[in-house]
Amino acid sequence: MYPSCREPSMLSFFESAVADPPIVDIKVQVFGHGERLEIALHPELPSKSMLDSWDEVNKFVHEYVHAFGTDVKHSNAWKCNFCGDPARETNCYMKGSYLFDRPLVDVWIHFMCSHEKPACVKGLATASYKITYEIGDKDLPGNPFATRAGPPPGGRWPLAASCCNCKTELSARTQSALRRCSGCKLTRYCSVGCQKADWKRHKGACKAVKDVDWLPF
């Protein structure tokens, strides 16, 4: 995701301008059927010394975006970007760079009904190569979801429309009962109990969300 090396002189020149702990600028673009979402995230790196290693920054960002995918997935009654069926899966690409005092990361997330539906897989391939063209790269950006485990027992991922904590089919059918977290204004829960039960996992993402913008697509 990041260059394999960096100029030592650049690091020392901007050292005094780097916050401690440093901030990562992450711009997330989310695509569903007829809807698009843009999210600005500013998570903190665990330590300033991490900037000395691109591998460490890269690992942190990949793990952070992978975890944040849960919060994005359960933010709306998303439908597959390519066929309009209820979404159960997501696909993510990301591209990073470094500007003076902080890492900059662009993330693209596409909602899908299933990675086993040929027409939607073809649509994802087209969308992915469009990303490559727009950023001027020869290769596809990195995919932090590429090594994820398979579906849970039962063979299906939870519906995106469901509660972020219990993830039940029932919660997906009762959309009027779902409420967004008042902190991040993104992730949805079916009850106060579910929100409290998920807080330990969600709080890192909640505090990093700086802006949420829903757009037509």
Q: What keyword list fits this structure?
A:
217 residues, alpha+beta, 7 strands, single chain, 5 helices, globular, two-stranded antiparallel ribbon, disordered N terminus
Task: Compile the SSE list and pairings.
Layout: H1 8-14, E1 25-32, E2 35-41, H2 54-73, E3 89-99, E4 102-112, H3 118-135, H4 169-173, E5 179-180, E6 188-189, H5 192-208, E7 209-216
Parallel strand pairs: 1-4
Antiparallel strand pairs: 1-2, 2-7, 3-4, 5-6
Protein name: MYND-type domain-containing protein
GO molecular function: zinc ion binding
Domain MYND-type: 163-206
Description:
This protein has 217 residues and is an alpha+beta fold. The chain has one domain. 31% of the residues lie in helices and 23% in strands. The protein is built from 5 helices and 7 strands; from the N terminus they run H-E-E-H-E-E-H-H-E-E-H-E. The longest helix is centred in the first third of the chain and has 20 residues.
